[in-house]
């Protein structure tokens, strides 16, 4: 016994092959053993790189509890990969405590400010940012609502036509302020450059691009509020903040009664935390990240404006477009804080993403990857995580440009992403039209047994392109003139083989409209949506929007207060050819007619959960994360058994 203990201790003093340790109070000059751990993840990465030749088993890096503040993103290339079929596993040493990776800087030494009652101030380091987090939640940039009737759109900006908005013309710091329009399915930002007579002058080309297309800045399909943001004089409400870009003094009004010196207040410095990206010749592969909490990022590009289109696709500001359709093939994507491209077999298990801007970007277009190499992600798994307090989509799978839907080289294909048993809740705070899961052009995307709870727009969005890139094109987009700017493709896109099943989707559309529990676009052969339970007072249940075809929907319960099956079907659209079977809803009969070669069978209306069939009750009970894991929910939901 004693001997065994001594032997074990001796073993721990020197690094055992295949095991490295990192701890907050470690030392990078040491060996990285259990008793003399490294201090930084970067140091451990160097050690791993020199150990993977001839790997005979998995290699583990155990990261001790605490928060690791990064000075720059951690970059994983093919050199960091597992070899010979073995994996390199980065793992929290104590899975119950986890280990946190932060891109921010804690702000301390707050004192009462003369800027106003209840406002505190502190000196921040000199960097540019758009994000400040209070106790692991998004703090609100100082803002004030502007009624649409107070301002009138002109080619250069917004003309003030009501005295209530006059103060904006002379507001100190006007040239750092922005307008934010919360529209039907878009969330648009436009910076202000100054004032000219009675007009608030808007930055170009953002303003030009914000006025073309659909659900535009000043002609929303539905108005969910217009705000002027980011000036010190607008800081009047608890949880609002403002950072002076010259003095780097940060101002914050804590919730009443709270001393900011007792809060965890962090200013985001980095835009990305993990760059997992190889090249198409040498992809990064066989990595696991288990039990980490990713937090505190920003995205400064938005300061030139954000011309939202849908679910994180936006018109770039490299030019002013006159024809909206000319822009459509070239929309950009919001980058993730954790980016994975040209990569194979990368697993993210347990832990969380919390209080950050972008979420996971899996095989997005090159414009959304810091490495410059987009797409090419295969066999990436995100499982057992909590994803909340993001600024944008929590997970974006696939790209939206031509190389994503019609790759010239098979190595660019995104395939086999698995999103399993995660909790998505309370997210999309910056771009509030963003969604928990957006899966675009990719093959065999699995979205299975997730909780998707309390979200501002749709729950799960699958597919993109409105049918315009599908084989044969779309008569609607012929009419709109899109094919003056891109080909009519004769072959199918990469979108196929999706599986969205066993998900719990609860309370969607809290801030937007024209949304659904599960929302689809374009043709996706061999794709099944089954055993999902949608319960929401806002939004449709299943929403098959433009071009959605060849979906197989089965065995679902839709508890909604409007249409359970919305189908955007018109003669010029290519929506149709869908099969919908065994769905139970509160609105069954009116949505159950066959049209456009859809087949709808066995849809049933139900009155109460108690009166459901055993199969329907079991769909409800099993939806979401598995019953034995439900204690990790930050909310409670009644799923029976009824
Ligand atoms: C780290 O280890 C080196 C070499 O043993 C030592 O010189 C140094 O003081 C240590 N640093 C700290 C912070 O303990
Ligand atoms: C707003 O502009 C429109 C057209 O430019 C004009 O007809 C209207 O009178 C303006 N509204 C106000 C209140 O000035
Ligand atoms: C990690 O997540 C998986 C998938 O949900 C789950 O089965 C497992 O229990 C989790 N592990 C820990 C340590 O929480
Ligand atoms: C359909 O998808 C399933 C699962 O994703 C796959 O196993 C099967 O091979 C696919 N079938 C066709 C015809 O592509
Ligand atoms: C559809 O759901 C029914 C009812 O649960 C089930 O019997 C059937 O196998 C499912 N069909 C397919 C193709 O999955
Ligand atoms: C359904 O699919 C068939 C065969 O591919 C096609 O000819 C037809 O136009 C499609 N119908 C709709 C409404 O998309
Ligand atoms: C109707 O749908 C079936 C099944 O998707 C398909 O095989 C067929 O071609 C479609 N027919 C027409 C006329 O669109």
UniProtKB/TrEMBL annotation:
Keyword terms of this UniProt record: Signal
UniProt keyword Membrane, yes or no: no
UniProt signal peptide: 1-18
Top-rank lineage group of the source organism: Eukaryota
InterPro entries: PbH1, Pectin_lyas_fold, Pectin_lyase_fold/virulence
PANTHER family: APPLE DOMAIN-CONTAINING PROTEIN, SECRETED PROTEIN-RELATED
Listed name of the protein: Pectate lyase superfamily protein domain-containing protein
Organism annotation: Penicillium subrubescens
């Amino acid at each position: 016994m004693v001997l065994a203990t001594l032997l074990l201790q001796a073993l721990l003093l020197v690094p055992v092959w295949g095991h490295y340790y990192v701890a907050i109070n470690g030392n990078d000059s040491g060996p990285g053993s259990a008793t003399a751990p490294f201090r930084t993840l970067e140091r451990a990465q160097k050690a791993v790189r020199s150990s993977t030749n001839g790997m005979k088993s998995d290699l583990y890096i155990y990261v001790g509890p605490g928060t690791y503040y990064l000075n720059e993103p951690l970059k994983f290339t093919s050199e960091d990969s597992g070899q010979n079929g073995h994996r390199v596993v980065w793992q929290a040493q104590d899975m119950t405590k986890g280990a946190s990776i932060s891109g921010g800087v804690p702000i301390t030494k707050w004192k009462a400010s003369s800027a106003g009652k209840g406002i505190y101030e502190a000196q921040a380091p000199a960097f540019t940012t758009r994000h400040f987090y209070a106790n692991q939640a998004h703090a609100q940039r100082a803002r004030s609502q502007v009624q649409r009737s107070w301002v009138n759109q002109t080619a250069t900006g917004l003309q003030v036509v009501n005295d209530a908005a006059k103060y904006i013309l002379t507001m100190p710091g006007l040239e750092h302020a922005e307008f934010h329009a919360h529209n039907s399915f878009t969330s648009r930002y436009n910076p202000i450059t100054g004032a000219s007579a009675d007009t608030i002058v808007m930055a170009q080309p953002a303003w030009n691009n914000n006025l073309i297309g659909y659900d535009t800045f000043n002609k929303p399909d539905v108005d969910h509020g217009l705000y002027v943001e980011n000036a010190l004089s607008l800081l009047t409400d608890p949880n609002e903040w403002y950072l002076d870009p010259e003095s780097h003094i940060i101002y914050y009004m804590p919730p009443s009664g709270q001393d900011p010196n007792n809060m965890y207040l962090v200013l985001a410095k980095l835009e990305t935390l993990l760059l997992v990206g190889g090249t198409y010749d040498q992809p990064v592969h066989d990595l696991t990240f288990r039990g980490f909490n990713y937090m505190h990022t920003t995205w400064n590009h938005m300061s030139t404006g954000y011309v939202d289109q849908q679910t994180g696709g936006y018109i770039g500001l490299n030019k002013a477009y006159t024809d909206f359709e000319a822009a459509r093939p070239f929309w950009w994507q919001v980058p993730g804080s954790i980016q994975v491209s040209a990569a194979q077999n990368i697993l993210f298990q347990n832990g969380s993403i919390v209080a950050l801007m972008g979420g996971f970007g899996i095989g997005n277009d090159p414009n959304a990857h810091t490495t410059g190499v987009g797409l090419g992600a295969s066999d990436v798994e995100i499982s057992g995580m909590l994803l909340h307090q993001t600024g944008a989509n929590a997970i974006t799978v696939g790209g939206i440009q031509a190389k994503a839907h019609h790759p010239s080289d098979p190595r660019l294909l995104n395939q086999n992403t698995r999103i399993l048993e995660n909790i998505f809740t309370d997210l999309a705070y910056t771009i509030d039209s963003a969604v928990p899961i957006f899966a675009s052009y990719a093959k065999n995307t699995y979205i299975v047994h997730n909780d998707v709870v309390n979200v501002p727009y749709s729950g799960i969005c699958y597919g993109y392109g409105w049918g315009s890139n599908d084989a044969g094109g779309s008569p609607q987009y012929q009419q709109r003139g899109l094919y003056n700017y891109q080909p009519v493709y004769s072959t199918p896109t990469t979108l196929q083989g999706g599986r969205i099943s066993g998900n719990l989707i609860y309370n969607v559309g809290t801030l937007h409209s024209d949304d659904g529990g599960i929302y689809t676009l374009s043709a996706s052969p061999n794709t099944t949506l089954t055993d999902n339970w949608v319960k929401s007072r806002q939004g449709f249940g299943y929403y098959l929007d433009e071009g959605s075809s060849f979906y197989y929907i089965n065995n679902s319960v839709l508890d909604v207060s409007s249409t359970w099956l919305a189908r955007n079907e018109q003669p010029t659209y290519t929506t149709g050819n869908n099969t919908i079977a065994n769905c139970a809803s509160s609105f069954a009969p009116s949505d159950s007619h066959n049209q456009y070669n859809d087949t709808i069978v066995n849809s049933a209306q139900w009155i109460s959960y108690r009166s459901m069939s055993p199969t329907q009750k079991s769909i409800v009970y099993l939806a979401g994360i598995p019953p034995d894991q439900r204690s990790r929910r930050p909310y409670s939901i009644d799923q029976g058994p009824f």
